[in-house]
Amino acid sequence: xxxxxxxxxxxxxxxxxxxxxxxxxxxxxxxxxxxxxxxxxxxxxxxxxxxxxxxxxxxxxxxxxxxxxxxxxxxxxxxxxxxxxxxxxxxxxxxxxxxxxxxxxxxxxxxxxxxxxxxxxxxxxxxxxxxxxxxxxxxxxxxxxxxxxxxxxxxxxxxxxxxxxxxxxxxxxxxxxxxxxxxxxxxxxxxxxxxxxxxxxxxxxxxxxxxxxxxxxxxxxxxxxxxxxxxxxxxxxxxxxxx
Length: 243
Prior knowledge:
Blueprint: E1 8-19, E2 22-33, E3 37-41, H1 48-55, E4 63-68, E5 71-72, H2 78-84, E6 86-89, H3 101-106, H4 122-128, H5 130-134, H6 145-157, E7 163-167, H7 175-188, E8 193-197, H8 201-207, E9 210-215, E10 218-224, H9 225-230, H10 232-240
């Protein structure tokens, strides 16, 4: 399991989750330390998005605890979890297509969390994503897929989170845009803790400090990225389906 990195910002302790009567997550246990990026890996259907939905309150846990910043949040509403400083960049982006780029960002704005390393504003978000500044008056539906992904990340930052959850951010991105997004995530690691769900293994390992691997809803590896790399061939063959 992960080495001791001090009091975790997020702790998953015996998490059990179901869709209807289908048991999806089984006794999951892992944690995210302050200021680190954790890559949550697994095949399609392994339980990655279910985990994210449980953390943000979309799918209530049926067992175990989810502790954020020292508080149990497994019974909290999504609104309360968001206000506490947890932000989600969902799979598929889900930006507001009829609003402009600036409107998408400002509608999400929230006062900064005193515990956060940085307070995000419209100016600072568009500074790290210059394309958004160039297209600030353009309706979001007219953006390219990569620009929409930048907007989804920027909108999450406008809530001034302490923990950022990203669900498949590289999906459908052209290589040049993927590199831009990767550079931004690398820079963000110093300012916000991150859980990254990602099918692009090379990208995930480039960014990750820690790794959790799920297989059929169970944690089969949890530890520092360096330990994952030492067992990478074995773990890929057995649990990730890539050679």
